[in-house]
Amino acid sequence: MYCDFFGFSEKPFTITPNPYFVFLSTTHRETFARLLYGVDSHAGFIALMGEVGTGKTTMLRTLLSQLDPEKYSSALIFNPCMSGEQLLASICREYGIETPSAEQNRAGYIQQLNRYLIERNREGQTVVLVIDEAQNLEPEVLEQVRMISNLETERDKLIQIILAGQPELNGILRRHDLRQLNQRITVRCRLTAMSFDDTEQYVHHRLRISGSRIPEMFSRAALRRIYRFSHGIPRLINVVCEQALVMAWTREQLQVTSAIASEVIMELDGDDCRSGLWSRVFHYLFSGK
User: Fold this and answer.
1) I need a surface site. Which of 18, 29, 77, 131 has the fewest CB within 10 A?
2) Share of the chain above pLDDT 90, in %
């Protein structure tokens, strides 16, 4: 659509988590360093918490992409709305562990996983398990995760587990019946929103990665307006910037001004987007212009 107009090789503000676009703001850089420390020091349990849209999934995918496959064996569980046995089956599947039909039950999965972890440990590999959206796990499933962490040698943990989720996860972990799990979390990270300076650098970073060569594509006043609306939440920044570029494109303007940013934000706050921005987009696309 607008990529040719602005000279992009790809859209800069999609909301799909993509390590290619990762930008380590001050808060992201600190959190990333603590995650790496927790994994490298074999902390056992690590908790990553952050509000919706702060970039947790992107950071996790970036972390896993940075781990040397010769030294680490990793798996990402993204949809944890499942039973304890289903979670074990999913974990085994992600690690490529073949489980015979007769052993496709809780005890069988644990046995096969334990063998796998011992083999990786003998080979000098660190096994990393990341469970995203962990606030959706039922308490009994979280207890099953704790049981997985019991797979250890006399000297070391056989698996490093990262539980990532929204702030509600902290309240769940504080439940009395999950106190054993809560006590085992030795590294806790909290991902917060970005400052204005980081927001400005974030937008410029994504534009540059997408191939933009147009100076000041977003005016500073527009960036301030976007920051006030988004409060430095990356996902909200992406939504506003994407629609602002569409509006600038339909008007054949190479710069997103404060007026354009304000108009987009007003329509995002409204009840009917079709009456505003999208009606103009549809009109532009099908008018033969």
Assistant:
1) 29
2) 73
Same domain, 204 and 175: no
Number of domains in the chain: 2
How are strands ordered across the β-sheet holding 72-77? Answer: 72-77, 126-131, 159-165, 45-50, 185-191
Domain boundary among 191, 219, 251: 191
pTM of the full predicted structure? Answer: 0.85
164 CB contacts (<8 Å, ≥6 apart)? 47, 48, 49, 56, 57, 60, 130, 131, 132, 133, 134
Per the CB < 8 A criterion, the answer to whether 141 and 173 are in contact is no
pLDDT tens for each residue of 65-111: 999 999 999 999 987 688 989 999 999 999 999 888 878 898 999 99
- Angle (nearest 5°) at CA 134 between 133 and 137: 120
Instruction: Please say which residue of 138, 171, 191 terminates a domain.
Output: 191
List, as one string, the DSSP characters of 30-76: HHHHHHHHHHHTT-SEEEEEE-TTSSHHHHHHHHHHHS-TTTEEEEE
- Let me know whether 233 and 153 are in one domain: no
Q: Which domain holds residue 222?
A: 3-17+194-286
Question: Contact, 238 vs 13, CB < 8 A?
Answer: yes
| Region 270-276 average pLDDT | 50
The whole-number pLDDT of residue 288 equals 41
Residue type, 194: M
Q: Domain check: are 120 and 211 in the same one? A: no
* Total Cβ atoms within 10 A of residue 52: 10
